[in-house]
Amino acid sequence: MGRRAHAMLFPFPCSGHINPTLKLAELLHSRGVYVTFVNTEHNHERLLQTTGGLRLRGRDGFRFEAVPDGLSEEDRRSPDRTVRLYLSLKRSCSAPLVALARRLGESDGVPPVTCVVLSGLVSFALDAAEELAVPAFVLWGTSACGFVCTLRLRQLRERGYTPLKDESYLTNGYLDTPIDWIAGIPPVRLGDVSSFVRTLDPQCFALRVEEDEANSCAKARGLILNTFEDLEPDVLDALRAEFPHVYTIGPLAAAMHAAAHDGGDHPGGAAAGLSLWEEDAACVAWLDAQAPGSVLYISFGSLAVMSPEQLAELAWGLAATGRPFLWAVRPGLVAGDRGADALPEEFVAETRDRCFIAEWCAQEQVLRHPAVGGFLTHSGWNSTTESIWAGVPMVCWPGFADQYINAKYTCGEWGVGLRLDEALRREQVAAHVEEMMGDTEKAREMRRNAARWKAEAEAAAAPGGSSYQSLDRLVEELRLGAD
Ligand code: UDP
Predict the structure, then answer these.
(1) What are φ and ψ of residue 142, in 5° steps?
(2) Is 403 in the pocket of ligand 1 (CB under 6 A)?
(3) 13 and which of 40, 113, 291, 340 could share a cystine (Cβ 3.0–4.6 Å)?
């Protein structure tokens, strides 16, 4: 009997990275791996303020720790805070992670850290793993197609596709340039490869960060993806030519659900309900009172920011559908650090009887609720996989990073989505929602496809399924590394 594997997990400190990393932590723990989940001190404090914060006490073999992020209060208030956070972590966070791992190794009853698992954007943690002489694994939080497109940003830059020469290139049809040479990806528009090709910055700061972060995954022992084999077979085949150790363990939401019914340690224990924003439980009671399949759910994830004009256009589009809707309007969704207060008063008055505006909700539970019949989404990868797992068709309005390629696959390859134009128009919002949820041939086709993908996602995550087996292989690899 060898040493117990001990995984130290460190995600980039935002919801889109923390959520899937927490799920992975739970799954590893449910299979006997000792887990240390590391937040930044700032987020740790924030989580303690929420109802779910009690879970930070952890449980047997699952502990939470925190390291400083190095940001000042001024940095935190800056519109540039994500970039500052990225740079600060890169500059100052490796040493605290190494020190934490060493301290844990000297603590009674704690096995030594035997591997580091990081999310995207924190590649400096690869160096921490090297210093600790343990293998590193990257949980890259996008689709496989999103990851491959991010890898290819370097070629796009070297071949002169990006940065754009001037602003006119954003609207003159240039972004429609066909790109048909990315192995594993069907022909796509340049604009769909990634938001980062839209840069006008001659230094390409964000573009280079993305391409460097993706390419640095080659230094890791393995790449973990929140997808499943049957969802993206061609791109996974192509990816494996470059990355031999790819573990497809998604959809993570489905894997968690399957593990909870697998008779093992309940994987929801320490992490479920741990969220940087307080979840509004009343929206579920509201959904309980709605007819099956009647409600449109709208959310743009944890980072997207829209202008007050876009918010108003969307709001009036929703009003025009005449349908009940649940809208997660988080504080900060609207430019100028605003939230639901930016909604037009007349819109609120007109739709009050058939809508629920929440700041934040338990999205997986909402999407799985029988009342929900459609999702208007920014096509973030977590949201997309949660919707696929729930069997809910989508109207997609992508705006950042991999969201464009996710939307392209959602609407094209998987046939479960309709895409809105970049310039939001209320008429199109209403028309697409109607086409998705109304009595139309397109709606029936999307519902059929959504039901098929839901079944495939469940099968992948169930015992014996491809994602289940992939997780088995990952755990085995972690155990071998511990000996
Ligand atoms: N989410 C949530 N409640 C909300 C809105 C979003 O729990 O009201 C969760 C959602 O379930 C998903 C995550 O926030 O797991 C958003 O991740 P995604 O990759 O979709 O978008 P990002 O936030 O990274 O842009």
Answers:
(1) -100, 180
(2) no
(3) 40
Closest atom of ligand 1 to CA, residue 403: 25
Query: Are the CB atoms for 416 and 367 separated by under 8 Å?
Result: no
The response to whether residue 146 sits with its C-beta less than 6 Å from ligand 1 reads no
Please work out whether the CB of residue 379 comes within 6 Å of at least one atom of ligand 1.
no
Q: Going by CA atoms, what residue is nearest to atom 24 of ligand 1?
A: 16
Residue 267 — very low, low, confident or very high, per pLDDT cuts 50/70/90? Answer: low
The torsion angle over the Cα atoms of residues 320, 325, 330 and 336, rounded to 10 degrees, is 10
Cα–Cα dist 51/84, whole Å: 29
Report d(CA 346, CA 324) in Å as an integer.
Answer: 17
Give 273's pLDDT tier (boundaries 50, 70, 90).
low
pLDDT in tens, 3-42: 899 999 999 999 889 999 999 999 999 999 999 999 999 9
Instruction: Decide: helix, strand or coil at residue 212.
Output: helix
Alpha carbon of 472 to ligand 1 centroid (Å):
27
Report CA(455)–ligand 1 centroid distance (Å): 22
Quick one: the chain helix, strand, coil %, rounded to 5? 50, 15, 35
- Whether ligand 1 lies within 6 angstroms of the CB of 16 is answered as yes
The CA–CA distances, whole Å, from 445 to 202, 321, 438, 442, 475 equal: 44, 20, 12, 5, 39
pLDDT, tens digit, 9 for 90 and up, residues 218-244? 999 999 999 999 999 999 999 999 999
Per DSSP (E only), the strands in 339-381 are 355-358, 372-377
Residue 262 CB-half CA count within 13 A: 20
Q: Is 383 in the pocket of ligand 1 (CB under 6 A)?
A: yes
Verify whether ligand 1 is closer than 6 Å to residue 375 (CB atom): no
Q: Which residues of 249-271 are buried (b: 16+ CB within 10 A; e: fewer)?
A: bbbbbbbbbbbbebeebebbbbb
Q: Are 16 and 226 in contact (CB under 8 A)?
A: no
Quickly count: other Cβ atoms within 10 Å of residue 116's Cβ.
Answer: 29
Question: What are the two backbone dihedrals, phi and then psi, of residue 170, each rounded to the nearest 5 degrees?
Answer: -75, -25
- The band of 90, judged by pLDDT with boundaries at 50, 70 and 90, is very high
Whether 268 has a pLDDT exceeding 60, the answer reads no
Distance CA 15, CA 328 (A): 15
Ligand 1 nearest atom to the CA of residue 275, by list position:
7
In ligand 1, which atom is closest to the CA atom of 361?
Answer: 8
Give the nearest ligand 1 atom to 302 CA: 23
